[in-house]
Amino acid sequence: MRETPGPSGSLGMSVSSLFFYNLVKTLRLLDIFQDMGWLQNFLLLSALSLISSSSAAGEGCKEYGLQFERSFSVVGEAAMLNCTLVAPEVFDFWNVSYNIHWYSKETLELGQATERTLVRGTTLWFLNALPQDTGKYLCVVRTPTQCFSQTTSLIVNQTNSHCDRPDTHTQYLTNSVFGEMVCPLKDMKTELGDSYSFKWYKDCQPIETDDKFMYRDDNQSLTVKRVEPKDGGFYTCTVTFDLGGIPTSMSATIKCEVKEEYVLQPRIVVPTNESVKAELGSKFNKECRVFVPCVGEHWVSVLWLASGADDYIPKDSTQRVFHQTQPDQRQVDGEKGVWLNHLLTFSEVKQEDFYVNYSCDVISSHNFVGAQFTLLPADPNLMLPVGLLLGCLALNFTAAVVFYYLFKIHIVLCFRGVFPFLYTEADADGKLYDAYVAYPRLFGDRANKEVEGFALHTMPQVLEGKCGYKLFIPGRDNLPGEAVVDLVEERIRASRRLLLLYSASAFSSSDVSAVSEAWQHWYERETAMHHALLEGSLRVVLLELEELHPAQLAVLPPSLRQLRKKQGVVRVRKNHTARRTTRRPGGWSLASGEEERQEGVQGLATPPLCPSSRFWKELRYHMPVRGKRTPCSERETLGNV
Q: Would you state the pLDDT for residue 531?
C-alpha cells in the first residue's frame, strides 16, 4: 500500500500495516503455547477478519458527500482528480500527519494496483483515460485520530477531434483593444515540474505567432492584438508532459466571446466656461455633467479645483465647500455611454467665493479635459416688481375680456355709429333688402295674428322707421297674383339677412298635427335652412318673442333646432325692475310712458319701441352694417323702459 508523507516530512503508516505488525508480534508470543494450537488458529482467523474490515473504504470516516466540481477528460489523454479534504477548514494539516487513499467504485485502492493510475500529493492521475474510467472515486484522508472521505466524479468522453472538448471554459475579449486568454491548465505546472509544453489551436488549426497572435508565459497565455468580433470562437490549449515515465497530454477548450466594450474621450457638457451668479449667504450648487462614450466599464475621474488652491476640493460634506458625487446614469439610446454628475456645493456663499474660477477636471486614459465657471454676485431681485406688473397686466386683460363679453353688443354698435366711414357701402353687394322677415302663418289661430302684428307693425316701426333698414315682409310687400315659390326664392337671394320670427303661442295650439303641418309647409323656412346650412350664403337670425318649453321645442323642425343650438336666438327678455312697468298677459314689460294697445297683440312678449333697448340692440348687432348710410337714431323713442 502506497503511503503519503505528511507536511512534516515523516512517513505516515497505514492503519492496516500497523495492525499487521502488532499481529506478527502476537503470533510470536503464541509460539510459546504450542500445545494450544486451537487457540492460535482462532486468533489468526479473528485478526485476518479485523484487517479486512478495518481496510474497507471510508468506513467510520466523516463523510463530505459528492464534490460539486466534476473532472472531464477524453479517451487517450490524462485525467486528474483532486482531493479537497486537505484544507484548514477540515483539519489542521500543517501540524497533523495524514495520508491519502483513493478507491474506485469497487472499493479497490488505486495508485499501486495498476500501471494506469498514480497518486501524487492530493491528486489521483489516470495516465491514459479509457471510457470505463468514468465513474465516482472516493478520497479518504486519515490522521492518527480522525478520518475524512469525499467522492469525486470523473467523466471520460469519446471525441473524434484532437481539439474538440465537450466541456468548455468561457473567456472574454474586449473589442478594439489587446486581449489575453489564459489556458485553464496553467495551474497544473506545479504538478508537472519542468517537463511540459503548451500548444494552442483555434477551430482545430494551430496558432502561430504573427501580427495577430502572441504567446506569453511559456505559451500559457495567448495575446490577441486589436480584437475584432471575428476573433471570437473556440480555442484549445494542449499541455504535453511526462508523468511516471509515461508521456501523456491534457487539453482544455475555451469559448471566446468578444465584448463590444470601449471607452472614448469624455465630453464636459456643463460648465461651459461661463459666469454664474449667486446670492451672498445662500446655498449654491453647480453641476459638472460629463458624458463618457463607452460600452462596459469606464475609468474616468472627475475633480473640482478652485483657482489658486493647492489641492482639489474634498468630498467632505462637513466642509463649507465640498464635492458631491451623484449616481452615474447609463445611456442606451442613441450614442451609448455614461453620464457622470458631480456637484460643487456651497453650504453658504461668502464674499471670498466671488470672482474665483472653479474648474471641473476630467481625467481618463485618453486625455485630460477641463471646463470652468466664475462665481459672481447676483443682481438685485426684480421678481417682485416684475411680478406685480405682470399681475396688473393680466388683471387688466381679464377685466377687459370680461367687460367686452358683457358689453360686446353695446361696444360694437357704438363703434359702428362713431366710425361709419370704416365700413363699405352695403348697397354695393347688389342686394335689395337688408332682411327678409319670415314667420309661420297658422290660419285661424290667434297666435298667428300676434306674430303677424309684430312682423307687420312693430318691426317696421323700429328697423325701417328708426334705423333705416329695408325689409321685405311677406303679406306686405308682395303683389297679388305673384307665384309664391318663385317670389320667396328670389326675395331671399336678394336679402342680406333672414329674420325668422316665431313665438311660444305658435306651438300651443290644441291641434298639434295642424301646427306641425304648418311648419312643414313653411317654404321660407326650408329655403332659408338650405341657404344657411348647406350653401352658407345666408345668415339666419332667429327671433323668439317668448321662451319655449321643452314640449314646444320638440315640435320645431330638426333643421331649425340644429340652427338654434348652433348660433342661439334673440329673445325678448322679461323686465322686472323697470320703473313704471305695466304688466300684461305673459308677464313682459312694455315701453314706459305709453301703453301700446295694438289690436291682436295682447299676450305677446312685446319689446319697447326704442332702438336702444336690449332686444333691438341685440337684433341690430346681427343686422348688416349700414356703412355710410344714415345712422340709427337712438334718442328718438316711442316709449321708455
A: 66
DSSP secondary structure, 337-384, as one string = EEEEEEEEEESS--GGGTT-EEEEEEE-SS-EEEEEEEEEEPPP--HH
Who has greater pLDDT, 626 or 629? 626
DSSP output for 447-504: HHHHHHHIIIIIHIIIIITTT---EE-TTTSSPTT--HHHHHHHHHHTEEEEEEEE-G
**Mean pLDDT, rounded, of the chain:** 77
Q: CATH 2.60.40.10: does it fit domain 15-154?
A: yes
Query: 119-128, 237-246, 555-564: lowest mean pLDDT where?
Result: 555-564
DSSP string computed for 19-48 = HHHHHHHHHHHHGGGGGGHHHHHHHHHHHH
Q: Pull the grid cell for residue 515.
A: 301646427
C-alpha cell at 35: 500445545
Q: In this structure, how many other beta carbons lie within 10 angstroms of the beta carbon of residue 487?
A: 16
Give the span between the Cα atoms of 604 and 504, in whole angstroms: 9
* Residue entry with cell 301703453: 595
498 phi and psi angles, rounded to 5 deg: -125, 115
Check residue 196 and give its pLDDT.
86
Q: How does pLDDT run across 342-375, given as a tens digit for each residue? A: 999 999 999 999 999 999 999 987 788 999 999 9
| Angle (CA) 10 13 14, round 5° | 145
Q: How far is CA 210 from CA 163, 215, 230, in A?
A: 21, 10, 17
Phi and psi at 81, nearest 5°, equal: -120, 130
| Between 112 and 189, residue with greater pLDDT | 189
Position 5 scores a pLDDT of: 38
Q: Which of the four CATH numbers 2.60.40.10, 3.30.70.270, 3.40.449.10, 3.40.50.300 does domain 263-377 have?
A: 2.60.40.10
Instruction: Calculate mean pLDDT across residues 276-282.
Output: 91
Q: What is the CATH number of domain 419-574+612-622?
A: 3.40.50.10140
- Residue carrying C-alpha cell 477636471: 361
- C-alpha 213, offset from chain centre: 45
Angle at which helices 383-406 and 408-418 pack, to 10 degrees? 80
* Phi, psi torsion values for 108, nearest 5 degrees: -90, 135
CA distance 436 to 414: 25
Is 503 exposed, middle or buried (CB count within 10 Å of its CB: 0-12, 13-18, 19+)? buried
Please report the pLDDT score of residue 111 as a whole number: 66
What's residue 442's pLDDT?
58
Name the superfamily (CATH) of residues 168-260.
Answer: Immunoglobulins (2.60.40.10)
pLDDT tens for each residue of 426-451: 666 778 888 988 887 655 544 467 77
Query: What is the rounded CA–CA span in Å between residue 110 and residue 152?
Result: 14
- Strands 495-502, 539-544: pairing kind: parallel
Residue bearing the bigger pLDDT, 255 or 178:
255
What CA–CA distances, in Å, run from 412 to 464, 616, 624? 20, 14, 12
